[in-house]
Amino acid sequence: MTKATIRKKEGFEGQKAIIIPRPVLVQACAQNDILNTLYITDMGYYPKAKYHYRERPQGADQHILIYCDEGRGYVNMNNTELLVQPGDFFVIPAKTPHVYMADATLPWTIYWVHFKGNTATSLLQFLQKRLNGYKGFIQHPEKSVGLFNEMYRQMEKGYGTDQLIYCNMCLWHYLTLFIFNEKTAIQNKPASKDITDKAIDFLRANIHKEVSLEEIALSVNISTSHFSYLFKNKTGFSPIEYFNHLKVQEACQYLLFTHMRIREIGFELGILDPYYFSRMFKKVMGMSPQEYRKKRIH
């Protein structure tokens, strides 16, 4: 395996990643009859990830699928070494020790998804059987990349029940594209937005501010009480609780990919009290911002 002179787990221009809060995985995914069969735990995109390196001597708790869009890299697991080039993808079963890295001179651009669930192992074994190994090639990546971006876009809206079910049902299709490499195009028609969708757009546009419930309801021209009922009925969360989830999701990006201090991240998100910010973060993610920063993946 070609060795890079510098090893980085993260820190690539244009990168993006979402790590689903562990409490959400336990409470909303693992205990939901629709979601517990197969669900995303983490996902992200690393463009031209120079010096990218990851080693897990004990493996990961989830199954991993990584697609290489450009450049090249290397994977080593089960005493098998793989060269990964544009159009290639590889899978790593949970608990399998492994190492992977970008090529030192032509670093890869990768899309990655971690997933688990009651049927995840059987599904991965089926994929491995079709591949006769761990690596495959996809002929029409635009379909899988388009679907990945759609899942990511929806996950950016938060962890409401609708978002989670939609994204994880898309995950079935996403994996199917790698298993069968289907030739049909994905039809992406913009869906009409209801009051809740418009409110979420408003929240995302004001992610760096402090916004009241009254302001959110006013943005969709509906009474506060009726709006709160409609919003919670659809998402499973109150508007302010949902807004906090979005803020924490944004905070995760800063913790993963910048060296900003915890206080500075809170200020950036319109939260002036660093202690309140830390408490809010821990309530959503199940760990403090400092602990989260230490547990970065990839």
Would you kindly provide a written description of the structure presented here, covering whatever features stand out?
The structure is a single chain. This protein is an alpha+beta fold. The chain is 43% helix and 18% strand. It is built from 11 helices and 10 strands. Helix 3 packs antiparallel against helix 4 and helix 8 crosses helix 10. The N terminus is likely disordered.
Helix amount: 40-55%
CATH third-level topology of the largest domain: Jelly Rolls
How would you sum up the major sheet? 6 strands, antiparallel
Q: Estimate the mean pLDDT confidence.
A: 90
- Count of extended strands: 10
Structural class: alpha+beta
What distinguishing features does this structure have?
298 residues; alpha+beta; Jelly Rolls; Arc Repressor Mutant, subunit A; 2 domains; 4-stranded antiparallel β-sheet; 11 helices; 10 strands; globular; disordered N terminus
Per-chain topology:
Elements: E1 16-19, H1 22-29, E2 39-46, E3 53-56, E4 63-70, E5 73-77, E6 80-84, E7 88-92, E8 98-102, E9 109-116, H2 120-131, E10 135-137, H3 141-155, H4 161-180, H5 195-205, H6 213-219, H7 224-235, H8 239-257, H9 262-268, H10 274-285, H11 289-294
